[in-house]
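Case study.
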Amino acid sequence: MEDLKHIVFLMIGILIAFTVVMTMVAYTVLAERRILGFIQGRLGPNRVGPGGALQPFADLLKFILKEDIVPDKSTRFVFFLAPVIATTAALMTIVVYPFGPEIHLPFVNKSVQLVIARFDVALLYVLSITSVGVYGLALAGWSSNNKYSLMGGLRSSAQMISYELALGLGLIGVILQSGTLDLYSIVEQQAGYLGISGWNLFWVQPLGFFIYMIAAIAETNRVPFDLPEAETELVAGFHTEYSAMKFALFFLAEYVNMFTVSMLATTLFLGGWNGPFVHQLPWLGVFYFLGKVVMFLFFYIWLRGTLPRFRFDQLMDFGWKFLVPTAIINIVLTATVQWSGAFDYVGKFLKTQTGWGG
Amino acid sequence: MVALLFILFAGLAVGCAISLVAQRNPLYSAISLIGVFISLACLYVTLAAPFIAAVQVIVYAGAIMVLVVFVIMLLNVEEEERKPLRLRFLVPIGIGLAAVLFAETAFIIFFVQAAPGTPVRNVSDVGLTSSIGSGLFTTYLLPFEVTSILLLMAVVGAMTLARRGGLLPATAGVVPGDQVFSKELLDRSQTGDLSAVATHSTDEAARLLGVVERHGSSDDE
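After joint prediction, the assembly is written out as follows.
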C-alpha cells in the first residue's frame, strides 16, 4: 500500500514536471522565431492569437495532420525507432533536476523536496542518458537510405562523441568541489549570501562553466555547431526524410535537450533554485530556477541569430585540441586548490569577517 | 516489486541476447546488444549498485556501441546470407554445455541458496559512489593504478598502429578544397606505398611525391 502511494505520488510529480517543461519548450520555439525575427529586422509569427501566442498549438495541429511519408527503401523498423529513441532520451533526464527547495504542501500537509528522483548518481545518470541519445540521430541518418541523411547521422555521432568528453571533463571540477553527484546536495551547497555569493560560477569554476556551455551547445546540435543539419551542405541532415509527427519528435527532442542542458547548467553553476529570500518564501525558488533556465534559452537563441556555422575540421580541432586540454587543466587547477585548502580558508574568512560564504 | 522488475529486465536482457545472435543484419545485432547492456544496467540498479549501472550505460551503451554502430554505418555492411551450417558436429557439444550451465544454475538455486550464506555487511552502501571511490583509492589502489597503465599502453598502441608507415606526414595539413593523394593512387607499380601529400591537383601531387607520370593507356584501363 505504501509502495503504491509512493508510485502515485511520483507519477503526479512526473506529470507536473512534464507539463511545465513541455509548455516551456513549446513557447521556446515561438520565442525563438519572434526573437530571430527581431534580430533580422522582421516580425516573425504574430497572427495566431494575441501576438502569436497560440502559434505552438497551430504548429502541433499541422504536424499531426500532415501526411507521414516513409521512404520506399528505408529500413522501416529503425526508421520508426530513431525518433522514439531521440525523444525518450531527451525526456528521461527531467526527473533528476531539483526544481525547488523543500516545500510544505498546503492540502496534503506534507513537506516535499521539489525533485522527482533524488539519488546518489544523478549526474552520472544525466550523462549516461545523454550518451544514449546519440543513437536517435545516428540511426535516423542510417535508416533513411539517403546520402545526406547518412552524412548528417555520421557527423552528429562524431560530434557528440567528441564533445561528450569535454562536457564530462568540464563537470568534474564541480564534482570535485562539492564532493557529491547528487544534484540536490550540489544546489544546497551553493546557498551563500542572499543565495547568490555561493554559486559555483563565481568560485574556481568559471572555466568549467565556459567549457560546459560550449560543449553543451555542440551536444544539442545548435548554431554554431549545427553541422549535422547544415542546410547549405546536407539539405536537412539526419532528418531530411522525416515528415509529419516523426519530424516533430526530432524537433521536440532538440528543444527538450536545450532545456535539460540549460537546467543542468543552472543546477551546477548558477545555484539552481538559490536566490534572494528563498528561505522565507520557498516557492520563489521554482521561479528563480525557471528564470535562470529561460536566460540560458535566450542565450541559445541569441547565438543562433548572430553566429555563423563552424566548418567540420574546425569543429573537431576546437573540441579535441582546445576544449579537452582546457578541461583537464581545469581539473588539475580545481584539485590543487581543493587540496591546498584555500577554499576553506577564504570561506571561513568571509564568514567570520563579513557574514558571507556558504 | 523488485522481483517484478527483475523478471521484466532479465526477460528483456535474454530476449535482446537471443535477437543479437539470431539477427542477420549486423546493425540490428548491434541495437540488440545495446538493449542487453541497458537491461543489465537496470538489473544493477535493482541490486543497489547505481554507480555500476550508470557507468555500464556510459561506457558500453554510450561509447563502445556508438563506435560499433558508426563503423557498421560507414562500411554499409549488408545482410548476411544464410549459409548451410558448417561445423555441424559442434551442435551436440553446444547442447551439452548448455545443459551443464542449466544444471549449475539449478544447483545454485536449490542447494547453495538454501544453505546459510555468509552475511554481507551493509549491502546498501557497497554500490554507492563514495564507497567505490574510497575502495579504489585505499584497498585496491595497486590494481587500480596497474589498470590505468594498461589503458595508457592501449592508447599508445592505437596511436602507433594508426601512424605506422606515415599515412600522412606531420607537415601535410588537410585543408578543405585540397585532396589527399597517396603514392599508391598515382603510380600503380608502387602498390602498398601509402606516403601521401595533400594538394589541389594530381600533377602537383605527382611532383611532390616524385612519381614519374606515364602518359598513355595505363590510366584509361
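Observations recorded in class. The CA atoms of residues 65 and 244 of chain A lie 7 Å apart. The longest helix of chain A spans residues 2-39. We will return to this complex in the next lecture.
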